[in-house]
Design a protein that fits this description.
10-stranded parallel beta sheet; mainly beta; globular
Amino acid sequence: NDYKTIQEAIDKAQPGDTVRVRNGVYNESIDIRNSGTRAKPITIEALPGHKPVIVPGKQTAHRVEFNAEWIIFQGFEIKNGWDGIKVYKPNNTIRNKYIHDNEFQGILVVSTDNTLIEGNTIKNNGTCLGCCSKPEWGGSSPKHCHGIYLSDYMCRGVDNTTIRNNYISGHGGRGIQWNGAECANTMKNTLVEGNTIENNSWGMAMYYNVEGAIIRNNRFINDTRPKTDDTSWTFIGIFGSRNNTIVENEFSSTLDDFSPLQVFDRTSSRNVVDRNVGKSIGQSWKGNGSWRGK
């Protein structure tokens, strides 16, 4: 069947169905509510050879929102939304998208499991004039807006997330941010591999209760930085997180104030950092909460 909007089509989709979208600019906020199954996911994708653009609008909560599971969502450009994508339900795939110039986060995953984020270009979210602004931040605060944000806001865990083969660039916050602060449980078993994380304020931050993450075979590059209210800059910052593995990554920066690694407490010293290579002219790093020489 033909439909006038993406929302109308996905509201009709049942397990095993595929929604294919033609070229065009679709000015609509999208709420995915119908679930597929493990054996019969619902696929929402660009028609082969087409490059549809979704513009949700920058009103509060306008974005592509996942309130269903077993969805494969691939092949779109998403821009000028409140967020690009927000995920509330497990077992979803976000693939081969160009997600850029949204007001807050590129992709936001909230207290849910088994999300695959693969092959996307995620750029310049939260960087426009007046973006990334809340009264509790004192107005605009680019350090709060990230390319991919894994938030355990509801303290139910964010487990078994895979972030693979993405290009993440130009964020005043982190390329990838975990946030499990104030939760009793941990955010378990994130796999981050094969990504290029370039010219964000920080490459990534594990912000409390991150455990069992594997960070491997990624390229971290910082030769410039976007506008940000951060006061220090690093490839990887670790707070209150342990038993994570950071191996076989490549790090490069020409900024003399850029720190290779910041470990903010003794708990965070209980991680494996090994077999990484790189070049940085920054002369200091942070271990166990104290600044150290190179």
